[in-house]
Amino acid sequence: MNPQLWHDVLLLPLLWPLLLALLIAVAGSGSRIQRWLPTAAVPALIVAVTLPPTSLDLPTVLLGAGLRLDPTSRPLLILTASLWLVSTVLLQRRHQPLSHHDHHRRVAVLALLAMGGTFGLALANDGIVLFAAGTLAGYALYGLLQQGTDRCARAAGRRLVILLVLSDLLVFELLLILAHAVGSTALAALQDAIRASASANVLFGLLLVGFGVKAGVLGAHLWLVPAFRSASDAVQLILITYVAAAGLFGWLALLPLGSMHWPNQGLVLIGLALATLSYAVLRAMLRTDPGDAASSLIMALSALWLCAIGLAIHDPQSAPRLTADLPLFLLHITLAFAALLLLRSRAEQRQCKGWRMTLTALMALLVALAALPFLRLGLDVEIKLGWALWWPSLGVALLAGRSVMQPRAAQDQERSLTRRSGHSRQQTLAGIGLAAGAAAVAGAAALGIAPNAVGLAWRLVPASHWSHTVLDPLTLVALISLATAFIGGWASGGRRARRPTRPQARSWSRTEGTAATGLRLLGHRLDHLARATLPAWRDAAWHGVHRLVAQRSWRTRLAFIEARLTQWDAILTILVLLGLGIAWLALSH
């Protein structure tokens, strides 16, 4: 075959979804072209599996655009193509009764635009394509959320579009700074600019907020949580794809991991990852809706990813071991997570405790096992600050176990069945297909195999940290720890499900009752002091402290804190403090 043809084929995953979107938009709502929606992801999947490593330069497009397929981008393209294939099948099934209405046409066009954007993120070889593809995918996702009938989903979309404006401005500013320094927008040149830059604090701040919004980290999570709670299964898969491609992969594409040393910035990123994971676990323990469990698990995934990136930029010597299998890890855990969502949702709808529930438990276990290499590295004394990987790894296993037995609140039953009315045998088959793919990726990674060659003839990769034998003591300790966390999460979900829904009187010990009374009296005293001596603009803050200490139990106090963290004033305060901290670091550098 002509070698130039291999390069030109890279355009097919981008052009086919956009061409279908144009045809559906022009042809009208009654056209049969809408039935081609599930075929939009097929070219990308074929290219990801069969095409050898290659690149394509387009000097006349977007100031010199470039595409590439390499060992880093191939797993992401397989991931996005697989999830989009399942999502479009579910969307087609869900909107089949509306196939002759404008609503279905709008959903199809927006889904195809978001699909083209995520494929562009996977194949981008320069900063302009990375920025344009991320912007296209983000605003198309906002449109999809606005097409839903759930008020919570539309509110999540409005929050997302506000944060997207901030995120895209910061990412664009970052690309301008880097491109001005090296005179090129290629990703390799941008990595050289980051490596040689003397303004590490400014660049890190732009990276942190720009990609943190799309990853749903703590402080920018207020769009992700309600979106998962109210979205259908198809849109949930699209959300997973967007977070993985736009929020997590950007760090791997821009940072020259292994050849850069940002010790302080690495500590900040590790701290943010641990805070995000703590919030995700707290939310999962306090909430009962399956959408909360899904959003908590995706936040835990982001936390584990950012913790590994933080350790890599803090200690360049350990970066190759930490980041060698990050693309395979992302492919493994997202496929398993998507299969878990589909199979658990199907089992809940059918009220089935048989093979579907067994397969759901196996998928949750596969999600937990994705954290094994990171926990094993965290136990290695050669990795500096390796202990920071313990909590994210165990948190992923804990939330995966809890998601199996996550109960459904009685008041959410009717709403959930309404939003999931498109369930069918196709959903079960799609979940089983994703489960098989996740199991294949996990087995290949355990054998040290990476998708770097044509087709199924994948080559062995040396020095993979998955290649440790099961008899390795650190691996055994990591397995036992993950199993303990998984069982603990499973047991906590089961106990919560068996609790009666009617309120019961709490039994208070004498010490706890005395402490609670003292806190309430202190709260009343603070409230009186605020009203008597402080100006009105501080009353709200003191009143919030009073409400916090006046709660009757630690569970309600934690729920109050969690509710405050999802309000706009708290989010803006966090962003302002983060901006002031970045400015102070930049001025003191």
TrEMBL record:
It is a multi-pass membrane protein. The chain crosses the membrane at residues 6-29, 36-54, 74-91, 103-122, 128-148, 160-182, 202-225, 237-254, 266-286, 293-314, 326-343, 355-375, 387-405, 429-450, 470-492, 565-587. Its main location: membrane. InterPro entries: CPA3_Na-H_Antiporter_D, ND/Mrp_TM. The keyword Transmembrane applies. Residues 493-512 are annotated as: Disordered. It is found in: Cell membrane; Membrane. Residues 136-289 form the NADH:quinone oxidoreductase/Mrp antiporter transmembrane domain. Keywords: Cell membrane, Membrane, Transmembrane, Transmembrane helix. One of its GO terms (cellular component) is plasma membrane. The keyword Transmembrane helix applies. Belongs to the CPA3 antiporters (TC 2.A.63) subunit D family. This is NADH:quinone oxidoreductase/Mrp antiporter transmembrane domain-containing protein.
